[in-house]
Amino acid sequence: MVLGVLAVVYMTAPNTPPAAAPETGQTRGSEKGMFVATFVPQDGAARQNELQDWVLTLKTATGKPVENATVEVSGGMPQHAHGLPTSPKMTDYLGEGRYRISGVKFSMSGWWQLKLGISAPTGSDTVVFNIVL
Amino acid sequence: MRCFPAQFQEKCVAVFHRELRRNKRSARFRVSAKSGNALSLILVLLLAVLVAGCERPQFSEAEKRTVASLALSALPPLKPDTTNRYADDPGAAALGATLFFDFSLSRNGTVACSTCHQIGQQFQDGLPQGMGVGRTNRRTQPLAGVAFSPWFFWDGRRDSLWSQALVPLENPLEQAGNRAAYARYVKARFGERYERIFGPLPDFAGIPASASPLGSVAEQSAWSGMSDGQRDDINRVFANIGKALAAFQRSIMPKETRFDRFAAALAAGKEPKDDAVFSAEEIQGLKLFIGKANCSTCHNGPLFTDHAFHNTGVPPVADLPPDRGRIDAVAQVDADPFNCLGVFRDGGPEACGELKFMVRDKPELIRAYKTPSLRAVAGRPPYMHAGQFGSLEEVVAHYAKAPLSVEGVSEVHPMQLSERERVALVAFLKTLSP
Ligand SMILES: [Cu+2]
After folding, report:
1. Cβ distance of A107 and B306 shorter than 8 Å
2. Confidence check: pLDDT of B198 > 80
3. Closest alpha carbon within chain A to B3
4. Which burial class, exposed, middle or buried, applies to B334 when counting CB atoms under 10 A from its CB (0-12, 13-18, 19+)?
5. Is-contact A48 A105, C-beta < 8 A?
C-alpha cells in the first residue's frame, strides 16, 4: 500500500504541459479544396539536420492523379522568427501524380510548417503541412 | 531509502506538501485519516517519514532525451567527404598538418594557419578579431568538429573545408599570398610528398612567380596573362593544398567533457561519479539551457549547433567595415570557382545539396551568422563573430535583453532571467569543457 501511494506521488509530480499539437497528418486537402496532397519523406522518416528528399502525391478531389504540376516550397517555424534553412525544390516527376521535393532540411526540433504552392493545368492552390520533430 | 540516484532527484517533501495536497486521491486519503482511523493516521506518519527520505526524478523523460541528444556519444561518425578524395588519406592529412603550421605559406613568411588557429588554444587565438598580416574583421573560430559543418566561416561563404582553407591563404589581412607562389613553394619544398598523393605537378616554365585572380594589381595582371591551361594547373595545385589542409583538419575532434560524463550517467540511470557529479547550480543551468532559456533550440545536437544562420541582434563593432553576415556570403559562395558545383570537386554532384538548395534571398539572412558550437566555450572568450562580448555573463545578458538588430530582424526575444538563473547558465556552460 505504501508503495502504491508513493507511486501516486511520483505520477503526480509536476510536468510541463505539452504545447497544443498542430495537425500533423501526412495527407491533407489543399486550401481551396482543389487537391488532396500526401507528403512523406522518401526514405520513411524525417530526420533533424539532414538534407532529405520528400515525395508529394497529388490527387484531385475525385482521386485522380494530378500531372504536369509545378510546386513551390516555402515555410518555417511558426513559433520562431525564421523560415526554412534550405530552399527545397521540386526536382522530378515520378509518375502517377507523384513529385520529388529535394533539399528539405529541419535544423532544429519543434514545429515546422511547409507550404506547398501547387500550380496544375486545372488551377492553383496551396497546401500546408505541419511537421513536428 | 533511496529510490533514484541522488543526482537526479529533489527532495520530494516539497512534492508531498505542494502536489499531494492538490491531488484528489490524496484528499480522499486525508479525509480518511481525519475520520479518526488510527491505522490511517499511523500510515500517513509512516509515509511522511519515508517520503522525507525519498526523492523524485529531477529530469522529465523529454529532458532526458534532449540531454542525450547533446552528448558527445550522439555524434555520428564523420561522413566521407566525396568532394575531396584525399579527405581520409593519411598522407594528405600529414602534408596538411605540415602546411597548417608552415609560416612560409604567407606573403611575408610570418603567418601560418596556426597563427590564428593555435594548437594549445582549441585552434583559436583568444582575440576579438584574428590577426594575420593585418587585423581581420572576424573572430577566429575553434576547429574541433569543424568537418561536420556544411558551411564555413561565420557567414558560410564557403561550402567545403577544403575550399575554406584557400581563402585565408590569399586574404590580404590573413596570409596575404598568391596561388602561383604557393604552388611553386609546394613544388620546391614538398614536391615529392605532393606527387605521391596528388600525382604529377605541372610544368612551371612560363608561370609567373606571383599571380592570382584575387591579388594585387600586378598579381591579377600576371594571372590574366597566363593561358587557360596554366591557370587550371595552378588552380589544381591550389585546390590540392586546400584538400590536404582539410584532410588534417578533419582529424580535429571535440573531447569528452564533464557534461558528457553526466549525460552518460543520466542516460544509464546511474549515479554520476567523480567530476561527472553536477552541482545544484549546474543542474539548474542545464535545465534552463534546454528549457526556459531556449538555448538548445539553436545550440542543438552533440556539437551544440544547428549549423544554420541566425540574426541574434549582436551589435556591430564600431571600427570595422560594415558586416551584413550571411546575406552577403550567398553571392560569394555561388561565385567561388572552388565550390561544390565547380570543376575542382571530386566525386559526383549529389554531394552539392547544401549549395544547390541554399537559401539565397530571404531578408532573415541579413546579419545572420552561423550558430557556433558551445563545446569548450568557457575556455575561449571573447564571444560572437567579432569578439563583441568579453565573458559568458555578457553573452547571457545579451540574449536575455535581446536588443533589436541594427539591420534586419533579430530572432531572439527578451526573457526574464534572474541573477541566480544567469549564474546557473554560465555554470552549466563551464561543464562543456574537458
Ligand atoms: Cu526554430
Report:
1. yes
2. yes
3. A6
4. middle
5. no
**Does the CB of A51 have a partner CB in chain B at under 8 Å?**
yes
DSSP B118: B
Task: Tell me what pLDDT residue B11 has.
Answer: 38
Query: A23 or B116: which carries more pLDDT confidence?
Result: B116
Helices H, strands E: what count in chain B?
17, 4
* Type and span of the H or E element at B224: helix B217-224
Output phi, psi for A79, to 5 deg: -85, -10
How would DSSP label each residue in B9-45?
Answer: EEETHHIIIIIGGG-HHHHHHHHHHHTT-HHHHHHHH
Grid cell 552577403 is found at B328
Are A83 and A75 in contact, with CB atoms under 8 Å apart? yes
Around ion ligand 1, residues with a beta carbon closer than 5 Å are A 77, 80, 108
Residues 389-418 of B with CB under 8 A from A: 409-411, 413
| Number of residues that make up chain B | 434
Cα–Cα dist B179/B169, whole Å? 8
Domain covering A24-132 assigned CATH 2.60.40.3340 in the classification: yes
Confidence bin at B41 (pLDDT 50/70/90):
low
Residue B241's closest CA among B289, B190, B277?
B190
Write down the domain spans for chain A: 24-132
Report angle CA B326, B359, A38 to the nearest 5 degrees: 150
Cα B373 to middle of ligand 1, angstroms: 17
Measure CB to CB from residue A103 to each of B12, B357, B410 and give the nearest one: B357
Supply the pTM of this predicted model: 0.87
Cβ contact A12–B23 (<8 Å)? yes
Distance from CA of A133 to the nearest CA of B (A): 12
Q: Which residue has the cell 609546394?
A: B186
Picking from A14, A83, A110, the nearest residue to B362 by CB comes out as: A83
The pLDDT score that the predictor gives to residue A22 is 83
Give residue-wise pLDDT tens across range B56-90: 468 999 999 999 999 999 999 999 999 999 999 99
Q: State ipTM.
A: 0.85
CB-based contact (8 Å) between B362 and chain A?
yes
HSE of B142 in the Cβ direction (CA atoms, 13 Å)?
25
Residue A12, pLDDT above cutoff 50: no
Ligand 1 centroid–CA A44 distance in Å is 23
pLDDT above 50 (res A6): no
User: How high is the pLDDT of residue B47?
Assistant: 52
Label residue B384 by pLDDT band (50, 70, 90): very high
| Distance (Å) from CA B161 to ligand 1 centroid | 26
Give the mutation candidate from A16, A49, A51 for the B interface (greatest B CB count, under 10 A). Answer: A49
Average pLDDT over residues B120-129: 98
The residue of chain B nearest to residue A101, with distances taken between CA atoms, is: B357
Which chain B residue is nearest to residue A53, measuring alpha carbons?
B353
- Beta-carbon separation of B60 and A15 below 8 A: yes
DSSP annotation string for A113-126: EEEEEEEETTEEEE
